[in-house]
Amino acid sequence: MRRFFLDHTPALHEVFTLPPDESKHIGKVLRMQVGESLELVNGKGLVFTAKITDNHFKHCKVGITEKKQFPKDDFHIHIAIAPTKNVDRLSHFIEKSTELGIHEVSLIICENSERKVINTEKLEKVIIGAMKQSKRLYKPILHSPISFDEFIEKHPIGLIAHCYEPEKDSIHKVLTPQNCPILIGPEGDFSQEEVTKATSCNYKSISLGKTRLRTETAALYACAIAKMKFE
Amino acid sequence: MRRFFLDHTPALHEVFTLPPDESKHIGKVLRMQVGESLELVNGKGLVFTAKITDNHFKHCKVGITEKKQFPKDDFHIHIAIAPTKNVDRLSHFIEKSTELGIHEVSLIICENSERKVINTEKLEKVIIGAMKQSKRLYKPILHSPISFDEFIEKHPIGLIAHCYEPEKDSIHKVLTPQNCPILIGPEGDFSQEEVTKATSCNYKSISLGKTRLRTETAALYACAIAKMKFE
User: Fold this and answer.
1) Candidates 3.40.50.720, 1.20.1280.170, 2.40.240.20, 2.60.40.350; CATH matching B3-69
2) Using one digit for the tens of pLDDT, what is the confidence trace for B154-190?
3) Secondary structure in 3-state letters for chain A
4) Is A228–B228 a contact, with Cβ atoms under 8 angstroms apart?
């Protein structure tokens, strides 16, 4: 059944109008008909079955016929990434990590960050597209950018990937299933000072292997390993 | 030191002209000067140190002052992927997997493939860019597209990721470090017939986890797990 995203949580049997984007998709792109069924997800584990009562391409109406709550994962993948200079690279990470099952993305502005401003609205759309694609029921949380220092203060325990000291643990050996944000630095890496700040809190330095990875590739790799380890 | 790619293997002390692309980069983009040193890699584990003897932006000349051979990895990551309808998605996989350390990419045309023709020349350029970025010394092999049947005949042992039977081994449990191509299907998955063909040879069905992944995400995930397991 076709699946659509909903930004509110309707009651059983409620009849309501879908947002313009989804209306257009149903009425114009897919040309779905009155009486056809579809699925709606709210990004919080609820899946609704609904019937189209009006297929107007600007204000499509549906009535909820069924609802079912699905449980959360028992692990939490949280990556804090410095936005890449080229936004497409960050956007690509957001898409892929949503498919892979990430739960939380923080954007951190670091000393070497070349990009300090980012339009999270566009990234939210990427997340919703990838959620539909991958049939995920929980929407990953995307935070607005904050400074590296602020992040460390808010999350005093975690892992930080960087290229400084040669002896570091491999990510898959030290990753824990809860409360363990993985910090991925900007194109020019974290500054030595930032690494010292993090490790003098409760951050462990980690290695992502032998090859030098771009910011978004490093973040994707970390996400893949977490998926493999805990899913 | 700046690193450039070479498609032949010069002798020690040889003086020769670099290809136009690299000449332009050295003479025009970076404005490097006569006497400056640079590194050249041949994609087969050789690293040359060279001095610029002529910095002309169309036919830059260098003389080799040192050469050193680095060993190969003791594992081999080979992914056979059905080219995605949108070429950018395949190109992205090629870039990311090169950074992650892939050794061989085969392109397979399957029953449900929407794209049957592909320009591998452009993908070769993506590989070289990613090699420089990630400081890899061995260039991954990229094969021209062949049919699924031809591939299976050439490689009678491997793993195949698909969405059919519910009980499959997780990729990280069955992946071996050698001679183990991982088959990733097109947007509409492999056909049931293709899966049967593969498993009646020596292919094992594998799962890439709970969420439904796009072709290029599945391939990237497989590559990340192989890197983690063997590197």
Assistant:
1) 2.40.240.20
2) 999 999 999 997 789 999 999 999 879 999 999 999 9
3) CCEEECCCCCCCCCEEECCHHHHHHHHHHCCCCCCCEEEEECCECEEEEEEEEECCCCCCEEEEEEEEECCCCCCCCEEEECCCCCHHHHHHHHHHHHHHCCCEEEEEECCCCCCCCCCHHHHHHHHHHHHHHHCCCECCEECCCEEHHHHHHHCCEEEEECCCCCCCEEHHHHCCCCCCCEEECCCCCCCHHHHHHHHHCEEEEEECCCCCCCHHHHHHHHHHHHHHHHC
4) yes
Q: Where are the domains of chain A?
A: 3-69, 78-230
- Give contacts of B135 with chain A, Cβ < 8 Å: 211-212
**Does the domain at residues B78-230 carry the CATH identifier 2.60.40.720?**
no
A72 touches chain B (CB under 8 A): no
Chain A hits for B231, Cβ within 8 Å: 209-210
| Reported ipTM | 0.91
Q: Report A:5-64 residues touching B (Cβ under 8 A).
A: none
8 Å CB contact of B211 and A172: no
Chain B residues with beta carbon closer than 8 angstroms to that of A220: 96, 220, 224
Contacts of B224 in chain A (CB under 8 A): 220-221, 224-225, 228
Q: Is the pTM of this model over 0.90?
A: yes
Q: Which of A89, A126, A127, A228 has the highest number of chain B CBs within 10 A, making it the mutation to test binding with B?
A: A228
Q: Do A3-69 and A78-230 share a fold?
A: no
Query: How many angstroms separate the CA of residue B42 from the nearest CA in chain A?
Result: 17
